[in-house]
Amino acid sequence: MSSVRVHRVVDGPETGPVVVLSTSIGSDHRMWEPQVAPLVERGFRVVRYDTRGHGASPVPAGPYELADLGGDVLALLDDLGVRRAHFAGLSLGGMTGMWLGVHAAERLASLTLCCTSARLGPPGMWAERARLVRAEGPGAVAEAGVGRWLTAGYAHSHPDRVAFLRDMIAGQSAEGYASCCTAIERMDLLGDLPKITVPTVVIAGADDPSTPAEPHGRHIAEGIPGARLEVVASAAHLGSYEQPGEFTRLILERITEDE
């Protein structure tokens, strides 16, 4: 495991409980913009960061392992002087959260795992996507990526947001994107789920073609002791962006449950 100093954006009171928001492959901290104001209004200190190889974070030579991405979060918490934080991650961010739940539970107050999977095959698909991105750049997968992120109805009604998200994917580092593909290709957390003792909610999008609730969300919720599964209607893979009200409500419900 290695760590890099990831780019971060911090909002909210310095003394508030910390919520770390972790992103999907192909995105950066801006994907969580809809959640910032509601969390800050409730007194939370919101830490968004760009996963290594994405946004303004460093792009070390790949491939990456999930342990590298988790190590970056631990270094981020250390850098900010945060002993324990609530953690919410979507897709690759959720995978990072599960790794932290297994290996660094003492640093977590709660876990919110959105639109994610503990094992997301087939491995060959991720190897091929990494090859394509290294050869042609992330723009080669941007259109298909947005097609998975948003339902067709939402995309039709919000062409400006489709363009914003398409440009977000296309603007990422080819090496960073491809190296994160390898982390997903090699990931298998199914057997480790019972080791996670952090209070956890799993949120799935009812129309998510990438990590549907059946089987992905259900496997996680059944594997983590005490976890529950929530399925949000009219949400594809980037459910936090398409249905921000309901995702934010569920995140707040989890992080305020033990107050």
From TrEMBL:
Residues 25-248 form the AB hydrolase-1 domain. It comes from the Bacteria. This is 3-oxoadipate enol-lactonase. It comes from Amycolatopsis ultiminotia.
